[in-house]
RNA sequence: GGGCAGGUACCCAAGUGGCCAAAGGGGACUGACUGUAAAUCAGUUGGCAUACGCCUUCGGAGGUUCGAAUCCUCCCCUGCCCA
């Protein structure tokens, strides 16, 4: 990602939830020492979304000031699963899966963070040889009361949901990572506060200078809830330009300013102006959203791709024309087939019942013409565009 | 080891012999509206069938009954209390 170097003040204030302890961190920065910036991840769900991007951009900016990123691959904690979600124990991953996921994660991670200035460390480096004595040593440092101060633990316990000892161990392992790599600062979303502070405590107990904790706000997903895979409301690093742009357009209007603040480096003044214009109603939120879409797509795919994505969006949704790229599907030209079957065959419906329902609801069009007859037959003698809803198209071509 | 409360469709959650393919909410999908894939409103949401209807589903396996998500038996899983 290319951008002009934001100054330190911008880095420390824009899109920052909390820095603990801020004064301490500023002193470290001022010392001229090359700081070790820790970020850990669990290779359980490899796909990164722009919510993760918020913290990665911070890392990159500090990296550009000469500091060292230390990426901790949680190949052990990844097996436990961060209990931060309300779900109970996650399924354990095989070592192969962990490895593959980690690989994918890192490819995406380095789309923003500079690989040269990053030290990658695997937890297994220090946990492989961990003995029961080491576990006791670690476990003896924390009390149940401390762990129960963690909201997710407390909530699950009080609601009578299952909570394993292994899960309670999660923060301890993450904390020990900080000791192992001698972190100066740990980064994370606000949901990581507890875990990161545990690292700070543990370092003190083990005679290391305590790390500071740098927390960024969580970016809401496209539907306003917490961005995450479970809600299917993420905008992913690997989303192709069109999709990425479209997803940005689908965020609710209220989130616009939050998105500008957290995912772009537009000057604060400019964002304030937008905010004012929105309140006064002197600007169409859609236009700002389009600007946001361009900004975000540009970060991952470049300015040209962003422009193309925008053109495509206008074409389909404003002018209601066909997208420029449509998946083709060949259909036997000799036979008249039932439309319901075709819908299932090309994957626009998962069952005939669903296909029938779509037709009944007026959601199916052939060459732009709405089909209302559930028993409609199609013969593909030439190319026909089959459409479901506003944005799912398939080109039917004659074949054998 | 004992007692109690639970395990329902994608998720949460009602239902305690037939009116149950199973309330309600969330999500998803479709439609209307819209200078947005925003907001709002409406509809749909197990499968097969043009349709009458048929089939599969309520932790698992058996059983009672004309008929079970609902009753009985055993088993598995979760939480709480007692030891």
Give a written overview of the molecule:
By secondary structure, the protein is an alpha/beta fold. The chain has 3 domains: 8-216, Rossmann fold (3-Layer(aba) Sandwich); 239-318, Orthogonal Bundle (Tyrosyl-Transfer RNA Synthetase); 327-399, RNA-binding S4 domain (Structural Genomics Hypothetical 15.5 Kd Protein In mrcA-pckA Intergenic Region, Chain A), CATH 3.10.290. The chain contains 18 helices and 13 strands. The strands form 3 sheets. Strands 1-6-5-2-3-4 form a 6-stranded mixed sheet, with helices on both faces. It has a 5-stranded mixed sheet with strand order 7-13-12-9-10, with no helix packed on it. The chain has a two-stranded antiparallel sheet with strand order 8-11. Helix 13 packs parallel to helix 15, helix 15 runs antiparallel to helix 16 (303-318) and helix 17 (339-345) packs across helix 18 (352-360). It is globular, with a radius of gyration of 25 Å. 34% of the residues are buried. The structure holds one RNA strand of 83 nucleotides.
Record the strand order, biggest sheet: 1-6-5-2-3-4
CATH topology heading of the largest domain: Rossmann fold
Total count of strands: 13
The level-1 CATH class of the largest domain: Alpha Beta
End-to-end Cα distance, whole Å, is 47 Å
What would you give as the CATH superfamily of the largest domain? HUPs
Domains (count): 3
In the CATH classification, which architecture of the largest domain applies? Answer: 3-Layer(aba) Sandwich
Bin the helical content. Answer: 40-55%
Poorly predicted ranges: 85-89
Rg over C-alpha atoms, rounded to the nearest angstrom = 25 Å
Percent range for β-strand residues: 15-25%
Largest sheet: 6 strands, mixed
């Amino acid at each position: 990602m290319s951008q002009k170097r934001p100054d330190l003040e911008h880095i420390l204030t824009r899109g920052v939830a909390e820095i603990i302890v801020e004064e301490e961190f500023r002193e470290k920065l001022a010392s001229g020492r090359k700081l070790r910036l820790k970020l850990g991840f669990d290779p359980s769900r490899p796909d990164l979304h722009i919510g993760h991007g918020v913290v990665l951009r911070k890392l990159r900016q500090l990296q550009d000031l000469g500091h060292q990123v230390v990426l901790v691959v949680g190949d052990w904690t990844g097996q436990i699963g961060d209990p931060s979600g309300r779900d109970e124990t996650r399924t354990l991953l095989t070592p192969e899966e962990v490895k593959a996921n980690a690989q994918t994660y890192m490819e995406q991670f380095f789309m923003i963070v500079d690989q040269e200035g990053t030290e990658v460390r695997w937890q297994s480096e220090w946990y492989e040889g961990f003995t029961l004595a080491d576990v006791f040593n670690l476990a003896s440092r924390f009390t149940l009361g401390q762990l129960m101060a963690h909201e997710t633990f407390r909530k699950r316990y009080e609601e009578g949901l299952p909570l394993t000892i292994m899960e309670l161990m999660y923060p301890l392992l993450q904390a020990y990572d900080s000791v192992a790599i001698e972190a100066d600062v740990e980064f994370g979303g606000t949901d990581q506060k507890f875990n990161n502070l545990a690292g700070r405590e543990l370092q003190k107990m083990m005679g290391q200078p305590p790390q500071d904790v740098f927390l960024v706000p969580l970016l809401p997903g496209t539907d306003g809830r917490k961005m995450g895979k479970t809600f299917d409301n993420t905008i992913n690093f690997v989303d192709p330009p069109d999709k990425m742009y479209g997803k940005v357009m689908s965020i609710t209007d209220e989130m616009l300013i939050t998105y500008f603040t957290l995912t772009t480096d537009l000057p604060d003044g400019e964002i304030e102006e937008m905010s004012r214009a929105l309140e006064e109603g002197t600007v169409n939120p859609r236009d700002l959203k389009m600007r946001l879409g361009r900004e975000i797509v540009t970060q991952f795919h470049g300015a040209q791709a962003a422009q193309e994505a925008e053109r495509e969006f206008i074409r389909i949704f404003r002018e209601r024309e066909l997208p420029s790229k449509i998946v083709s599907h060949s259909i036997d030209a000799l036979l008249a087939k039932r439309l319901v079957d075709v819908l299932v065959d090309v994957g626009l419906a998962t069952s005939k019942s669903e296909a029938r329902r779509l037709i009944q609801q007026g959601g199916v069009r052939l060459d732009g013409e709405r089909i209302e007859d559930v028993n409609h037959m199609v013969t593909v003698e030439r190319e026909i565009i089959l459409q479901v809803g506003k944005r799912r198209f398939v080109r039917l071509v004659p074949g054998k």
